[in-house]
Design brief:
single chain, 261 residues, alpha/beta, Rossmann fold, 7-stranded parallel β-sheet, 7 helices, globular, binds nicotinamide-adenine-dinucleotide, binds ligand 0WE
C-alpha cells in the first residue's frame, strides 16, 4: 500500500517535465495520492496537460499567484472537486532576470517587491486560502534553496526571498499546529530546471556543488519527490516548521576538501 493512499494533494508550480513540481507529482502518484496541479500561464498549458494526464490527474488549473482572484478561483474549484485536501505543495519562485546578476545592492524596489510577492507572499496567501480545506494530519510544503542562509553569487534578491520563505514556514507551522497541519520546506541542491536555465555561472556552480558535497552526487527531481512524500506522509507526523535539506550534504561543509582528485 502506498504511503499517500487516500490522500489528496494540490501541487503549484508545474511548468514542464524538468520541474521539481513534476518530480513531486510523480512520487505522490506512485504512493497512491489523488493529485491536482496548477500552473502559471496559458503558454504552459500545452506542456502541463499531457504530464497531468499521464498520472491520471484531471484537475489542472491555471493560477497566477500574483492575482488574488486567481487564488480564490483555484481554491473554490478545489473545494468543489475534492471537498477537503491533505497536501499543498508550493513550488514557485520568481525574480526578474536582471536582479539575478551583478551586485545585490542594485536590486530595485520593484524587483524586490516582485520577488517577495511571487516567491514568498504567495505561499502565505495559499496557506490562508486553503486552511478551511485542509484535513487534520495534512501537510504544506514549499521549496527553498541554501542561498537563503549563505551567499550564493548572483542569487541576490532570491536569497533574501528564500530567507523570508523559510521564516514564513515557521510562522505558518505555528499557526496551523493546533489544526494538526504541518508546514515544512525542502531545501534542494541545484537542479537544471527552467528556473535554473540561463542563470549566469550555473554550470560552474553545479560542478563545484558536486565536488564539495559529501555524497558527490547531483540532486534530482526524483530525490526531491521522495523527500516530499516523507514530509507529506504520516511518517513525519511530529515534524513541522523544519527546513529539510536534500542537497547531498552540501550545506554541512565549511571548507572544500582539496585532497581529493
Ligand atoms: P520551474 O521553473 O520548473 O518552476 C518554477 C515555477 O514557478 C514555474 O512553474 C513557474 O510557472 C512558476 N511561477 C512563476 N511565477 C508564477 C506566478 N506568478 N504564478 C504561479 N506560478 C508562477 O523551476 P524549479 O526549479 O522546479 O522551481 C520550483 C521551486 O524550487 C522554486 O521555488 C525554486 O526556487 C525552488 N528551488 C529550485 C532549485 C533549482 O536548482 N532548480 C533549487 C532549490 C529550490
Ligand atoms: O530558486 C532558484 C531559481 C530562482 C529563479 C531563477 C530565475 C531565472 C529566470 C527565479 N527567477 C528567475 N527568473 C528568470 O527570469 N534556484 C535555486 C536555481 C538557481 O537560480 C540561481 C542560482 C540557482 C542555484 C540564480 C543565480 C545563482 C544561482
Amino acid at each position: 500500500m502506498g504511503l499517500l493512499e487516500g490522500k489528496t494533494a494540490l501541487i503549484f508550480g508545474l511548468a514542464n517535465k524538468n520541474s521539481i513540481a513534476w518530480g513531486i507529482a510523480q512520487a505522490f502518484h506512485r504512493e497512491g495520492a489523488t493529485i491536482g496541479v496548477s500552473y502559471a500561464g496559458e503558454v504552459l498549458k500545452r506542456r502541463v496537460d499531457p504530464l497531468a494526464e499521464s498520472i491520471g490527474c484531471d484537475f489542472v488549473e491555471e493560477c497566477d499567484v500574483s492575482k488574488d482572484k486567481d487564488i480564490a478561483a483555484v481554491t473554490a474549484k478545489a473545494e468543489e472537486r475534492f471537498g477537503k485536501i491533505d497536501i499543498l505543495v508550493h513550488s514557485i519562485g520568481f525574480a526578474n532576470r536582471d536582479e539575478l546578476n551583478g551586485p545585490f545592492y542594485n536590486t530595485s524596489r520593484e524587483g524586490f517587491h516582485l520577488a517577495m510577492d511571487i516567491s514568498v507572499f504567495s505561499f502565505v496567501a495559499l496557506a490562508k486560502a486553503f486552511q478551511p480545506l485542509m484535513n487534520p494530519g495534512g501537510a504544506m510544503i514549499s521549496l527553498t534553496y541554501h542561498g537563503s542562509v549563505k551567499v550564493t553569487p548572483n542569487y541576490n534578491v532570491m536569497g533574501v526571498a528564500k530567507a523570508a520563505l523559510e521564516a514564513s514556514t515557521r510562522y505558518l507551522a505555528y499557526d496551523f499546529g493546533p489544526q494538526g497541519v504541518r508546514v515544512n520546506a525542502i531545501s534542494a541542491g541545484p537542479i537544471r530546471t527552467l528556473a535554473a536555465a540561463g542563470v549566469s555561472g550555473f554550470k560552474s556552480m553545479y560542478k563545484a556543488f558536486i565536488d564539495m558535497a559529501p555524497l558527490h552526487e547531483k540532486v534530482t527531481i526524483e530525490d526531491v519527490g521522495n523527500a516530499a512524500v516523507f514530509l507529506s506522509s504520516d511518517l513525519s507526523a511530529r515534524t513541522t516548521g523544519e527546513i529539510f535539506y536534500v542537497d547531498s550534504g552540501y550545506n554541512i561543509m565549511g571548507v572544500p576538501d582539496m585532497s581529493e582528485e
